[in-house]
């Protein structure tokens, strides 16, 4: 699937999130990586910010 040189890590590799994004939708909080992994951004808000 990956055409990059050097190739991106496979979906089974421990460093799979290092693959390059092929589709990115930061406004929706996700990206599709070239190895087929869907990467979701998780925003955490601490209680010290008074937003929880």
Task: Explain briefly what this protein structure is.
By secondary structure, this protein is mainly β. It has strands spanning 21-25, 30-33, 38-40. The chain is globular.
Net shape = globular
Order of strands across the main sheet = 1-2-3
Percent of residues in β-strands: 15-25%
Structural class: mainly beta
Number of self-contained structural domains:
1
Task: Please state the CA-atom Rg, rounded to the nearest Å.
Answer: 14 Å
Helical segment count: 0
Task: Describe this entry's structure for a reader.
The protein has one domain (1-43). It is 0% helix and 23% strand. The chain is built from no helices and three strands. The chain has strands at residues 21-25, 30-33, 38-40. A three-stranded antiparallel sheet has the order 1-2-3, with no helix packed on it. A hairpin with a 4-residue loop joins strand 2 (30-33) and strand 3 (38-40). The termini are far apart. InterPro entries: DUF5999. Residues 1-23 are annotated as: Disordered. Pfam families: DUF5999.
Strand and helix layout:
Blueprint (H helix, E strand, L loop, with lengths): L20 E5 L4 E4 L4 E3 L12
Antiparallel strand pairs: 1-2, 2-3
Provide key terms for this protein.
DUF5999; mainly beta; 52 residues
